[in-house]
Amino acid sequence: MKHADESTSKIHYICQTYVEQKSGRNRQASLKIGKQFQYSTAAEAQNRAEREALSEDCAGADAYMIEEDPDSGEVGSPNFLVRLGNVPEIDDL
After folding, report:
1. Cβ neighbours of residue 83 under 8 Å, at least 6 residues apart?
2. Are the C-beta atoms of 18 and 58 separated by less than 8 Å?
3. Rounded CA gap, 43 and 28, in Å?
4. What is the domain partition of the chain in residue ranges?
5. Superkingdom, according to UniProt (predicted)?
6. What one-character-per-residue DSSP string does 36-84 give?
7. Cα 4 from chain centroid?
8. CB 68 within 8 A of CB 20
């Protein structure tokens, strides 16, 4: 039986890809999110990131997990499983 003060967090495993986007007058390249996939295990997210990073149109890929409090909807900071290729600095996320 669950008590009122107990909370069960939910873990999400995400693969997120990045593509280069040229913008501005000097056409500087910046990164933007390409695709996002959610999986039920860390291995699935990491395997997808590794496959996506090999794609010609993918600049880089992350696989990470985040913890969500379903009661409040708050989501914690990402815990990276793997970062491949050209990915944004952690402070830029």
Report:
1. 60, 61, 62
2. yes
3. 35
4. 10-88
5. Bacteria
6. EEEESSHHHHHHHHHHHHTSTT-SEEEEEEEEE-TTT--B---EEEEEE
7. 32
8. no
- For residue 18, what is the enclosing H or E element? strand 10-23
Residues shown for the chain: 93
In 3D space, the residue among 82, 92, 88, 71 whose CA is nearest the CA of residue 39 turns out to be 82
49 is written with which tokens? 């990131």
Determine contact, residues 49/37, Cβ cutoff 8 Å: no
Q: Which residues, in sequence order, are bridge partners of residue 15?
A: 37, 63
